[in-house]
Q: What sequence folds into this?
């Protein structure tokens, strides 16, 4: 028995076949693993190359034209706020770059925005006025679909404003919004406990009953901000405005109506305006863009937190 060959044991042939099958299976798995490894390595390489191309594109935001003088295009897209594309920092940086470029014939603000922060809009307005005092460079605003509230605030600093006949223009007003949940809390038996140092520190708290005195105060703040807005529009537009009782009521008008009211100077698109005002087809976009990595992260969903925070913080003043 001790000298017996393993292959002579009963059933040993089946065992060896099983071992052979297992070894063959492991070999197949290794080959599959190698194939998947190659695939993932190639995918990673393509991804890295893609990021590299995007970074190289974003590294040169301003692509020069044919060597001829050109119009500088600066886009004001979306909500005007500190953390958005249309932030004062981005717009002002683009404006300064354009004014420092000797090849720039003039600046065109291409606007498509519902408005936003009065502070951010005011920063841009003031900077346009300051830059124009340093160099005689014309600044025009062209409104696409929408140039409302804070966006119109910015446009009012331009030498002239243009829009399409169907554009929506105006909304010269201020809004400060919130919610009131006191009825819901009472219905479900929820007690609000708010501790403050300062009599009116929690006056915008949506879970506390509205105080008539604090409401009047808040309306006063809105009115002051509204008057500041009106003053800047009047300063920018001058005697071109044909004021009506509802001009500063927060309403919006079509491009044709806005032209009749003196809110804009004419009907035109960006390319048509550049041809007319500068006698050229050359345009260079000076708009500041996010870097490729930041844009990619936001597209993958990292911007959800920012959007949620903006939605929850509903008490900030907005030019809408």
A:
């Amino acid at each position: 028995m001790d000298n017996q060959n393993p292959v002579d044991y009963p059933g040993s042939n089946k065992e060896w076949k099983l071992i052979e099958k297992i070894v063959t299976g492991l070999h197949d798995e290794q080959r599959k693993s190698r194939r998947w490894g190659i695939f993932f390595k190639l995918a990673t390489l393509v991804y890295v190359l893609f990021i590299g191309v995007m970074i190289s594109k974003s590294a040169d935001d301003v692509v020069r034209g044919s060597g001829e003088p050109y119009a500088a295009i600066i886009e004001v897209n979306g909500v005007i706020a500190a953390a958005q594309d249309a932030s004062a920092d981005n717009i002002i940086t683009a404006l300064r770059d354009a004014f420092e470029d000797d090849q720039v014939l003039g600046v065109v603000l291409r606007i498509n925005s519902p408005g936003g922060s009065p502070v951010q809009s005011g920063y841009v307005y003031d900077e346009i006025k300051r830059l124009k005092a340093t160099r005689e460079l014309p600044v025009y605003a062209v409104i696409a679909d929408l140039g409302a509230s804070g966006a119109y605030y910015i446009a009012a600093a331009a030498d002239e404003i243009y829009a399409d006949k169907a554009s929506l223009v105006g909304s010269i007003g201020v809004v400060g919004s919130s919610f009131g949940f006191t009825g819901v809390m009472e219905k479900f038996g929820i007690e609000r406990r708010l501790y403050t140092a300062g009599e009116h520190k929690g006056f915008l708290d949506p879970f506390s009953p509205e105080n008539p005195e604090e409401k009047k105060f808040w309306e006063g703040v809105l009115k002051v901000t509204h008057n500041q807005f009106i003053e800047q529009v009047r300063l920018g537009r001058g005697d071109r405005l044909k004021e009506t009782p509802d001009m500063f009521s927060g309403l919006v008008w079509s491009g044709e109506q806005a032209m009749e009211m003196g809110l804009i100077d004419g009907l035109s698109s960006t390319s048509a305006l550049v041809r007319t005002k500068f006698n050229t087809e050359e345009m260079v976009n000076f708009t500041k863009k996010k870097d490729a990595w930041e844009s990619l992260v936001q597209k993958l969903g990292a911007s959800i937190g920012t959007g949620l925070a903006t939605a929850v913080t509903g008490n900030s003043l907005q030019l809408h």
The radius of gyration is 31 Å.
